[in-house]
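Lecture notes, unit on binding sites. The following record was shown on slide 14. It pairs a sequence with pantoate.
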Amino acid sequence: MKTITSVAALRQVVSLARTAGKRVGLVPTMGYLHDGHMALVEASRKQCDVTVVSIFVNPTQFGANEDLNTYPRDFPSDERLCRDAGVAIVFAPDNKEVYPEGFDTCVESGELAKPLCGGFRPGHFRGVATVVCKLFNMVQPDAAFFGQKDFQQCAVVRRMTRDLNLPVEVVTLPTVREPDGLAMSSRNRYLSEQDRRRAVTISRALFAAQDEFRSGTRDVQKLIAVAELHLQTVDRLQYLELVDSETLKPAESPLRRSSALCVAAYIGSTRLIDNVTMELIVS
Ligand code: PAF
């Protein structure tokens, strides 16, 4: 496994692989890797010949009062996990490599970036779309792998890839959960022991609504109310919305299109997001 920090060196290695007819997979991450990331790596290893994992804590997707400086980092452990998982290249550029002096261009998503997290984290999806677009251009992968826990991010990245004709297949994989249901996230490490126990209420709420949906309920308010009941114990509910899976607009009642119930809530001072989908086959 090679650890590469410059775009020039990365291009050289990747272009050699591509010339040899190899399919290149990219797993974009901000590091502090957990089993959720490793499931993306495994999928890339299965579908591609060469897997690149990028590790870059992207400053432009953090708001002024967010956790950029305290975001968990453990590069030696990340490298070890990647090596053990058969990753070919870890791409770990520094800020200057990604945003050289004078950097002045952004990718601005439209409607998909406005609801849900977009309403509470202004500029977040501009930062995400910009860095993902740059990573696609730097690595030039055939496929890139994202986790569905970041449901809105997946929608924004898919749309951007289509809109900008980026020749990358965007693959999304189901959320990986702890045994009690908590969605895996690097930010889970912020939780105290007691908060960690309470955090399970978020996935419980979503699963309860999903069960209700599976038992035939299609009324949006009823489905939301089921989840709300469980969410009484979170410290602050930022949003709980049932949205159309493609447009992310509020789902119409009764549900006729596949939708996602998305939540952002604080447990203590830790902001967690999660979602479940409610699939409907449209004929
Ligand atoms: O999901 C993440 O870890 C980040 O948003 C991503 C896609 C690596 C862009 O910085």
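Take-home: The chain has two domains: 2-173, 186-278.
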